[in-house]
Amino acid sequence: MSIFNKVFASIGIGSAQVDTRLERDNYFPGEEVKGIITINGGKAEQRVDEIYLSLHTTYIKEADDKKYTATALIDRFRVTETFDIGPSESKEIPFSFQLPGDMPLSIGRTKIWVSTGLDIKNAVDPSDKDFIKVLPNRLMEAVFGAAEDLGFRLRDAECEEASYRLRRRLPFIQEFEFIPVSGPFRGKLDELEVVFFPLSENEMELYLQVDRRARGLGGFLAEALETDETNVRMTVTSADIPSMLQKLKAAIERYS
């Protein structure tokens, strides 16, 4: 083997390449992801310390009264132990991992992707990026359906940096912003914001922010002082799906 090939490989020139093929690109939170990682060797033999898969999304952060986009690591999975890949050698490695239950959904501007990397000592890290679509599960769908039946329309969905009191495992929360376009809350509310906090596959905590429409002088004063918003916490389970509309309506009515 040429000494130049060894030197080039150590600085990432002519080094191994990686490609990940997912079984599909649509998933639900908590679902198993399967696929195959293909590694093609470069011009020199290389030792791969590990192959890892990581889940990422972006979210909005605020600092010094300015907003900017940051990348968040949702989870990371080790796929293999140390191995060697020879010059022009090709390896296929099947993998599987489970999506966390608190995955954000691919709604609005939220994008989610799987990054594949090879950890190679003294080399540029070869990586691959594959976007996936995370869909709402049955419980989330029931909440969305109930909101729609109550006359709400989804206006925006975005991942934002979580405040201290709302922070869980991840540094962000995903907010779903609804506006009433018909039904009993039109003219009463400006908007309704919903955040999901999954507790298990069949149980979820909902955080609702009910933004009342200003009515009269006192109402405008309340809005100016930002006291027209009421935060509501409620827990829903799979058993609540048939009555989700009534449950959500009752929670909102108490504060509208």
Question: Could you list some keywords that capture this structure?
Answer:
256 residues; 6-stranded mixed β-sheet
Textual characterization of the structure:
By secondary structure, the chain is α+β, with helices and mostly antiparallel strands. The protein folds into 2 domains: 3-134, Sandwich (Immunoglobulin-like), CATH 2.60.40; 138-253, no CATH class. The protein is 15% helix and 50% strand. It has helices at 3-10, 138-149, 216-224, 244-253, and strands spanning 17-22, 26-27, 32-40, 46-63, 66-78, 83-85, 90-98, 112-120, 127-134, 152-161, 172-180, 189-200, 203-212, 229-237. The strands form 3 sheets. Strands 2, 4, 5, 6, 8 and 9 form a 6-stranded mixed β-sheet that branches. A 5-stranded antiparallel β-sheet has the order 10-11-12-13-14, covered by helices on one side. Strands 1-3-7 form a 3-stranded antiparallel β-sheet, with no helix packed on it. Strand 8 (112-120) and strand 9 (127-134) form a beta hairpin. Helix 2 (138-149) packs across helix 4 (244-253). The longest helix has 12 residues, at 138-149. The relative contact order is 0.14.
